[in-house]
Fold this protein.
Amino acid sequence: MDPNAEHFETIIVGAGSAGCLLANRLTADPRNRVLLLEAGGSDRWIWLHIPVGYAYTIGNPLFDWCFKTEPEPQMNGRSIPIPRGKVLGGSSAINGMFQVRGQAADFDHWRQLGLPGWGWDDVLPYFKKHEDYEGGASDVHGAGGEVRVESSRIKWPALDVIRRAIEEDGLRWIGDLNTGDNEGIGPVHFTQKRGFRWSAARAFLNPARKRANLRIETEALTQRILFDGKRAIGVEYKQGLTTKVALANEVIVSAGAIGTPQLLMLSGIGPAAHLRDHGIEVVLDKPGVGGNLQDHLQFNMHWKVEGLETLNNRDTPLGRVGFLLEYLAFQTGPLAMGPTSLAFFTRSSPDRDRANITYNVLPFARQMTEGLNRAFYPFSAITMSVYDLRPTSRGTVRLKGNDAAIYPELRFNYLSTDEDRRVAADSVRVSRRVMGRPALKAHRPVEILPGPDARDDDDASLIDAFARYGTTIFHPVGTAKMGLPSDASAVVDDRLRVIGLEGLRVIDASVMPTVTSGNTNAPTLMIAEKGAAMILEDARRG
């Protein structure tokens, strides 16, 4: 142990959504000295702040870990890119900025699993606490918090036409997708402020940077957690070629659903046999670490349309000049847009008890090519992006070596259950049903992808289309799941403490027992808000 190592009250590993919020909350008390470690670099790059910049940051190794799965058996053996933020703000700095909490039943299910304090009524105050909702405070929304939530700053008449078709299909306009019941059509709200991305770094770190009790270290890759017996006492991390040690009363791992289980296993916490295979001394045999991996698998269906202006026919050299000038003058237009401003949640079949699939309706479509960068079709087009809200397939994160710089092995096992394959096939049929409604008849939609080879009367061909073209929508969770101490697969308890150890918590999306029904950034911030309150409460109790 380094005798010159600095000592902190708390060390937070990972400056993503959860880590940024935690750093802010814990340093509000000047007595708490906090070290925040981020493996990525600074967020001082223009495309990290212009909303459409996700097109330039996802897949860019400067800001994205650029993980890839192992060949996925049910996806025609394809290796799927898994973007994760590698920068201050984490994935909130490169994501689509969607503010979607999920359904009340998601959180009530967590409570029913034996996790008190995690039902919808329990967590709603934590969603509201940091929210600055453009519509003001209400029973379900907060105002004045750090995270600004606004509607789209560009209007697409084409989406109004699609909305009418969805209404003809039987869904109602609900206006707000974040009240606990999101079945219906609604506007997408974004983590933006007056035309700029509002990442967790901007929301929480920037206001806290001047606090003397907060130390932020970037380009700092944590190698392992240090222990004295069963108590975490610090971390070892590397900056450049230098290995450093920092000590603390408590270590919080907030490295995300991939980075968190990797670090726990490198530190000797995980499936004992797997750790020994990599020459790692076992601190705690914890088989659930790296298991329970869940994600939303999206499928983009493309339609050519007539008489509707979309981004495809506005994206010309002259049009791009106009985009830039509009953004510079007003912070509106295509450069200010998230992927879409219209979404709907529905049931894949009548036997479902609540909405189990969601669609993002995009006012553009890109050709399918290798990787994440795709060229626009040279004609007006619409994308219906659909995913199963509550997939039953489960995967794993496993080590490939005993060094933090070695990327882990990712197996999501997409479409590995009959249930997921059934929902996939049904969701294609729902898309086609909507696009065939009278509201769109005058615009003569022609399906480009997957096309006529995927037949409604042939489940196998519909599932094969998913296998050929499906990809992540960037919502991995669950790999250090919260559960009862009696559950051998649980990693943390209901207060986010690693079961069987002292001085160590996990606070990020990896603790979700089951994935929420929608985008996962908002639930992750809620988990961090609630986790921070628990830490401060425990400190007051002594």
Remarks:
- Residues 153-187+297-388+431-474 form a domain with the Glucose Oxidase; domain 3 fold (CATH 3.30.560.10).
- The chain has a mean pLDDT of 97.
- The chain is about 25% helix and 20% strand.
- The two ends are 27 Å apart (CA to CA).
